[in-house]
Amino acid sequence: MTDLFSLRGKRFLVTGGTRGIGRAISLRFACAGAEVVANYIHDAHSAEQLKGVAAAEGLSLDLCRADITSPKGLKRVKDLISNRNLSFDGLIHCAATGVHKPIQAVSARHFEWTFSLNTLAFIEIFNLLVPHLNAGSTVVALSSMGAVAAVPNYALIGASKGALESLARNMALEYADRGIRINILRPGSVKTDAWKVIPDAETRLETARQRTPIHRLVTPEEVACAAQFLCSAASSGVVGHTLVIDGGRSIVE
């Protein structure tokens, strides 16, 4: 019987693919048989560590160091594709940044910085990949609960994620007839290194735990499995939708 969840023989680009949820997705996809190109910008140590883990397990995973918010970085991705004559079966946009500040402290520079990676880079890297996407390709935009809920000091990031979701839905409509499925993955609170810069992180995480029906936070690996589903044949009828994976947190008043 065909394994509808297998990604064997496919190749994916995972932006922000060497840390946190992106790292978990890169490994999950590689374990499912895919060739993964994990993009990153600054943290070479984490990138090389991930590559070492993949090599030790016999997984197909390459690195691509490129700032996809810059023309130079996008050219680096384009050159990689051209030089190796690569085609892809999907894109998972995990790369994200932003500032945790009240609205009155948000500057134009903060706005540009946050939206350039969280939102605009998604369009840029997708447009770059389109000519190299195989039939039946899938795209997943990684969002957050801040896209639909008010979170303290999260207004700018939440706004960028809300815009990302809207873009993904419209892109799904435009590209469905070309055989490209685009969906959104919206995790709840997942404890990663990103929380280190969030004010009152432990208090907020504990509150999330207490209010989550499964009495714990979802893990990066669980989010990665949901991403695998959206990129597999098992989700062939899912187009332009948002999959929430939060342990039930969002259903609780």
Give a brief rundown of this model.
The chain has 253 residues and is of the alpha/beta class.
Distance between the termini: 42 Å
Strand content: 15-25%
The CATH first-level class comes to Alpha Beta
Count of helices? 7
Largest sheet, described in full? 7 strands, parallel
List keywords for this structure.
Rossmann fold; 7-stranded parallel beta sheet; 17% strand; alpha/beta; 7 strands; 253 residues; 7 helices
Describe the structure.
The protein is of the alpha/beta class. It has a single domain (11-245), classed as Rossmann fold (3-Layer(aba) Sandwich). It has 7 helices and 7 strands. The protein has helices at residues 20-31, 44-56, 71-84, 108-129, 155-175, 201-210, 220-230, and strands spanning 11-15, 35-40, 61-65, 88-93, 133-142, 181-187, 242-245. The chain has a 7-stranded parallel beta sheet, with helices on both faces. Strand 4, helix 4 (108-129) and strand 5 (133-142) form a beta-alpha-beta unit. Helix 1 crosses helix 7 (220-230). The longest helix has 22 residues, at 108-129. It is globular and about 45 Å long.
